[in-house]
Amino acid sequence: MTRGSDTRDTILASALANASEVGLEGLSIGNLARQTGMSKSGLFAHFGSKEELQIQVLQRAADLFTDSVVRPSIKAPRGEPRVRQLLERYLEWTNNKRIPGGCVFMSASFELDDRPGPVRDALVGHVESLRSVFRTAAQIAIDEGHFRADLDPRQFAFEVHGVVLAYHVQLRLFDDVDARDRFWSALDRIVASAKAD
Fold first, then answer.
1. Could you tell me the pTM of the whole model?
2. Contact between 73 and 89 (Cβ < 8 Å)
């Protein structure tokens, strides 16, 4: 890594942590400059605009999701074991210390849902990629004979995503100590209904 890419990496790590707590719109060049020990102009030079910073923060989150959830889960056996590994790692992802305010994709989904533009477009792409991981895993589970042949992988991914959204709200907004148990109760039912006879 070059010094420039190290600096950029430091900025993005700080920006992702901030965005998880204050939202993408709440990101402040001034606060990031103070946290990273840079000047505002020096920090701005790495991105050129707040919009580009927001897009890069989402990319950083997507890379972290891939490294934390997808890559380790692929090592699990194909089919239902891999689905369950993905679900476990997805739950861990929402509590990742590098995103202290929770999943930035979740919070940004509410923040940007009615704001057209490049940042929303980037978010839609990342969330769609995230959901496609679960569609693919469900299809593999069908192919392996673990899930029933008539299961709709898109519906499966939709329901998993819905439970994770509910978990995020239950944990972050309501501070529900039972949120994890509720998460697994809901997902166990989804997986059970997907299973082949």
1. 0.91
2. yes
